[in-house]
Amino acid sequence: MVNIIARKNDYSDLDLDFLAHPTTKDVMKKTGVEAIKRSVRNLLLTNFYDRPFQSNIGSNALKILFDNATPMSATFLSNAIKETLKSYEPRIRVDDVVVKFDFDNNGYNVQLFFTIVNRNEPAAITLFLERIR
To answer: Checking CA distances to 119, which of 78, 92, 104, 132 falls within 20 to 30 Å?
Structure first.
């Protein structure tokens, strides 16, 4: 009798900090939940037309930051985040997005709760979105 063990499919992406691996001196990679978190962060911080030849990838989140801060702008930001992740990140299912305006720092605190699809593993990301221009 042969025991067959299936290898767990793990998500991986390049580490955008471009740190060198200590032994191979190659660029390290992010795996698992950290790879997905990095991908989500990149999607939310990318405007439309920022990527050459892929102008449709991005979110409207940074555009909303230049609107007046109202409760409706927080709702618009939450909806933009949900739509972006639904369209461009098939590895996750968004459970909840909590957006609160921080008047002292003139930005939005965003808490994103999601579940990784193949693992049913909950994860969360906390971001602070602010205008930089």
So the answer is: 78
Residue 4 lies in a domain: no
CA triplet 54, 56, 58: central angle to 5 degrees? 100
Residue type, 47: N
Which residues lie below 8 Å from residue 90, measured CB to CB, with a gap of 6+?
117
Q: What whole-number distance in Å separates Cα of residue 43 and Cα of residue 117?
A: 18
Q: What is the pTM of this model?
A: 0.81
Q: Please state, in angstroms and rounded to a whole number, the distance separating the CA atoms of residues 108 and 31.
A: 28
**Do the domain assignments include residue 3?**
no
- CATH number, domain with residue 101: 3.10.450.40
State what percent of residues in the chain have pLDDT above 70.
Answer: 89
Domain membership of residue 1 (yes or no) is no
